[in-house]
Every structure is written in C-alpha cells, then in structure tokens.
Design a protein that fits this description.
The chain is of the alpha/beta class. The chain has a single domain, classed as ADP Ribosyl Cyclase, Chain A, domain 1. 46% of the residues lie in helices and 11% in strands. The protein is built from 10 helices and 6 strands. The strands form 2 sheets. The chain has a 4-stranded parallel beta sheet with strand order 2-4-5-6. Strands 1-3 form a two-stranded antiparallel ribbon. Helix 3 runs antiparallel to helix 4. The termini are far apart.
Length: 301
C-alpha cells in the first residue's frame, strides 16, 4: 500500500512538472513572437515607400560644392561657414518623419545662410523659372531666390530622411502632393518667405501668360511671397506677364481676371501695382533662341 501511494505521488509530480514545462515553453513562444512582430513593424523595410525620387545622389558633396562656389566666386564678401551650414541643414530633416517637418526645424539653417538683399533687386517668379533665371544671368540688376545662397545651394535637389535611420534616404522621398510638410516643401516655402520679407523698394515678378491663369493663389508666389512683402519697405510691385514667342499663344495677360485678382491683393496690402505684357528686355532673351519669330523683329506692329 505504501509503495503504491508513493508511485502515484511520483506520477502526479511528473505531470505537474510537465505542465509547468509546457506553460513555460508556450510563454517563451508568445514572447518571441511578440519580439519578431515588433521588429518587423519597426523595420525600415516596412516604412512607406514614397512616390517621389529619393534624395539626390552625392547630396552633401553637391551642396557643399555650391556653397563654396558661392562664397568664393559669386559673393566673396559673404563670409559664411559652408560646413556648418551643411550640418545644420542636414539636422533639419535627418532621423525625422519626412511628412512632419516644420519651419522650426529649418530656422537654424535659415538664420545661418540669410543676409540682406539690396533694395529694388528682388525678382519673384511663378511658372517662369527658366526664363527668369536666364534674365538674371544676363542682367545683374535683379535677383531671384535661386541667386541667393539658400536657393543657390538647394536648387533642383531632393532630400529626406527616415525616423528609423540616421542616414539620408536615397530610395524614395514624398512628393509635394503626398504630404504638405515634406522636407523640400517646407524648405522652399520658408526660404521664399524670408526672401519676400527682406525685399524693399520696387519688387518685380515674372509670370507665365501662356497658361490659363498667370496668377494662382496656391503657388508659392501667391500663397507665401505676396503675403510676406512688407508694405513699410515695398512701395511698388511690377508684374511682367510673359508669353511663349513660338506660335504667339496667349492664354492670360495683364487684362485677365487672374491678374486683376493679384492687383486687388497687392493694393489691398497698400503696395502700388503695375503690369506689363511681354517686357521687351525679357522677350529679347527668348529671341536669342528664336530670332525668326515675328515678336523678335526690330520693328513690331
């Protein structure tokens, strides 16, 4: 009787140990599965793949090269620290969600790279990038944002980071229509705001009259630059509505509804307004490539 009771007790003990072992194994499996799930969820491979192209290859080298060119050749009197500007610029977006960039992120680099703009030399533009920059290359009496250090360094480049990496993302970056607060959008809007705020005297703007609306409220010119001109410093805005000389197609002009809307906004801010269709000195730049066009004749009707 005693030996049988002892045997049954041993069996119960073994069953208890087996049960505990099974519970511990199941617990370990659950913990391991949770760790794997968490790692996969946070893995860079699981992060969104944006529709836009990735950061420009050799971004650092390009921006530093442009900066050194600018302070050595374009504006030797500027005296800026290019390495510090680059590091400050990179810190604005690295290790951050590329759809949650703020003006505060870029404030340090804006302050480092900004400098005064001479009065009467500001040229704003909308949908006329190529023509506006051809003009400022030939005529140094006006400057666009891209002629200033902030614009000169970043013109035509793409950049973004990732919250899970300390490296620049060269695979994909969000397009402007994917999220409003992406690195490029916030940078250009903030740089445009600072550029407009610094303007004084007469401000020029070159718009495209070969599209349906030369002035568009949602453009950076319409939504940012106009509203940050200081009426205490700017007394006149001169608009040049330019048309493609090939074919002579004209969709909008100084007498069009969009320019009338622009006039109302500008004068509502106590800034005088004037508009000219096809400013001759700008049109002649177009004529260099197309001298046979009727608009390029010396004597025009």
């Amino acid at each position: 009787m005693v030996r049988g009771s002892s045997s049954r007790g041993s069996q119960k003990c073994r069953c208890l140990l087996l049960g505990l072992t099974v519970i511990l194994i199941l617990g370990a499996v659950v913990v391991f599965a949770a760790m794997i799930f968490t790692r996969r969820r946070d893995s860079p491979a699981e992060l969104p793949q944006w529709k836009g192209r990735g950061s420009t290859p050799n971004l650092k080298e390009i921006m530093l090269g442009r900066c050194f060119t600018y302070i050595r050749m374009v504006n030797p009197e500027l005296g800026k620290d290019c390495l510090k500007i680059w590091e400050t610029f990179k810190n604005a977006f690295i290790c951050k969600n590329p759809c949650n960039i703020t003006e505060k992120d870029y404030q340090p680099v804006m302050e480092l790279a900004a400098y005064p703009i001479p009065c009467n030399k500001t040229l704003l533009w909308s949908k006329t990038s190529e023509l506006a920059h051809k003009y400022t290359k030939i005529q140094d009496n006006l400057l666009t944002l891209e002629n200033m250090l902030l614009g000169y360094m970043a013109d035509g480049l793409t950049w973004c980071g990732s919250p899970s990496s300390s490296e620049i993302d060269y695979q994909s970056c969000p397009r402007w229509d994917e999220c409003a607060n992406n690195p490029s959008s916030i940078y250009w809007k903030m740089a445009s705001k600072i550029f407009a705020e610094a303007a004084c005297g007469v401000v020029h703007a070159m718009l495209n009259g070969s599209i349906s609306h030369a002035f568009v409220n949602s453009s950076i010119f319409g939504s940012v630059e106009i509203h940050h001109l200081n009426p205490k410093k700017v007394h006149l805005m001169k608009i040049w509505v330019m048309h493609d000389i090939i074919g002579g197609q004209s969709s909008d002009s100084c007498s069009g509804s969009s320019i009338k809307q622009l006039k109302s906004i500008v004068e509502g801010r106590n800034i005088s307004f004037s508009c000219e269709d096809d400013h001759r000195s700008v049109q002649l730049i177009q004529c260099v490539a197309h001298p046979e066009e009727p608009a390029c004749k010396i004597c025009r009707n």
